[in-house]
Design brief:
By secondary structure, the chain is α+β, with helices and mostly antiparallel strands. It has seven helices and 27 strands. It folds into two domains: 283 residues, no CATH class; 91 residues, no CATH class. Strands 15, 16, 17, 18, 19, 20, 21 and 22 form an eight-stranded antiparallel β-sheet that branches. Strand 16 and strand 17 form a beta hairpin. It is globular, with a radius of gyration of 19 Å.
């Protein structure tokens, strides 16, 4: 396989020419851009013109990752032409969160039709209208074991107003799109690490509906959360990105999942999360340090690279949570740099800061929706 990467910066144009010679039906073009980009953006039109036969897939972000840099207002692009891997693009529309599971099932049906040698799926979703938990579960259930699933939920900085997904060169709100990668020569590695620590008392989720949390220990969830945040509560929902919740099933030894807030409802005194908040689960507040976040990103990369040892070029795609970026501040690029520390020569690195990350939580586990993690996916061929 051959892979190349470039970035379009506002007011400056492309940092290097688009590698149009890589265009083919076996070429994947990933593009991560600012939420304010419109369908008529010159950079997106350039992509469509340069790669008419390729599979184009992308989304809006809370920060674009390009190599060892993090940009805003840009378009970060990776172009990968596979030698032995076939590609199929699947698309489903989602008007509201309750349709998320159905969207995952429809994607699975489209991807199964592409052939029995499906090895991996990279999925991008609207970041606001979708509940990532049933989306991922339905997709994984429809595809069965042996298919690596990764990706993320589109972002909109810390504004939480508007996200888009690019499927086949078209920008679409309320959309989930996935590329299926087929063939025995494909190698995929994944890593997922958080670096967050629980603090404060453990509480029980006593009333919820899907990804909407109403009560903890029988009390309004939003009221309790505001008590912990103090003066930071004035900045909700954005300030909540610094203090996510961990949830775990009481009878399970599995690692807890991290959930971050997408919206609050003052009238209902509730909070909407990127994934399910099941009744009966235990919940605790979480916090972290800069060094813990950076170290966890390095571990995620090492895990992913360990599982993908193909020859020649490799494509590394990082999806990290917007909450991590808000905590890291000026040290954000250190997290991205740590991903590349163990990467071999010939590696191209792109990605984005997201509203939710999709990957297996541990080696051999099924894929799930995560928040506040750094997930790394490595694609190569043998």
């Amino acid at each position: 396989m051959q892979t190349a990467a470039t970035t379009h910066l506002a007011g400056q144009g492309w940092q290097s020419p688009l590698p149009a010679d890589l265009d083919s039906p076996q070429t994947l073009v990933l593009a991560f851009g600012a939420s304010q980009l419109g369908a008529d953006a010159p950079a997106l039109q350039d992509l469509a013109a340069a790669f008419p036969r390729s599979v184009l897939l992308g989304c809006s972000t809370a920060g674009e990752i390009a190599g060892d840099a993090v940009n805003d207002g840009s378009l970060s692009v990776a172009v990968t032409r596979f030698d032995h891997t076939r590609l199929v693009l699947a698309v489903a529309d989602v008007a509201q969160a309750s349709q998320s599971g159905d969207a995952g099932a429809r994607l699975a049906q489209q991807l199964r039709a592409g052939g029995s040698d499906l090895r991996a799926v990279f999925m991008l979703s609207d970041g606001l209208a979708v509940n990532g938990t049933p989306l991922v579960q339905a997709l994984a259930g429809g595809l069965g074991d042996g298919v690596a699933i990764s990706g993320g939920l589109a972002g909109d900085g810390s504004d939480f107003r508007h996200t888009w997904v690019m499927a086949g060169g078209t920008l679409r709100p309320g959309c989930v799109a996935a590329v299926g990668l087929y063939g025995d020569r494909l190698q995929v590695g994944s890593g997922c690490e958080g670096g967050w620590m629980d603090f404060g008392p453990e509480r029980r989720i006593t009333r919820s509906a899907g990804n909407v949390l109403y009560e903890l220990d029988g009390k309004p969830a939003l009221d309790l959360y505001k008590t912990y945040l103090g003066e930071l509560a004035q900045g909700l929902p954005g300030s909540a990105l610094r203090f996510p919740l961990s949830i775990r099933r009481p009878d399970s030894d599995a690692p807890p999942l991290v959930r971050t807030i997408l919206a609050i409802d003052e009238a209902g005194r509730s909070m909407t999360f990127a994934g399910d908040m099941p009744e009966g689960h235990a919940a605790r507040l979480m916090r972290t340090t800069n060094d813990s976040l950076i170290d966890s990103a390095a571990r995620a990369s090492a895990d992913a690279l360990r599982s993908a040892t193909g020859r020649g070029d490799a494509l590394v795609v990082s999806v990290s949570c917007v909450g991590r970026r808000l905590v890291l501040g000026e040290r954000t690029e250190e997290e991205v740099e740590s991903v590349l520390e163990a990467a071999p020569a010939g590696t191209r690195h792109v990605g984005f800061y997201s509203y939710g990350e999709i990957a297996p939580g541990t080696a051999g586990a099924a894929s799930d929706l995560h928040n506040q993690t750094m997930t790394v996916t490595v694609f190569s061929e043998r």
